[in-house]
Amino acid sequence: xxxxxxxxxxxxxxxxxxxxxxxxxxxxxxxxxxxxxxxxxxxxxxxxxxxxxxxxxxxxxx
Length: 62
Known about the structure:
Layout: H1 8-20, H2 22-25, H3 38-42, H4 51-61
């Protein structure tokens, strides 16, 4: 979650970092969870994705 005013480049960089380094950030007892699936990464319910996050997901996953 971030404020809409967060610069797009910052949101994109943070999103890339979180996605690409997720295995180092996920606790070992959470192994096997499905949150790293692309569909669940972008499934935010009623909260819209930041434009920077959208750009990062598109660059990483098409």
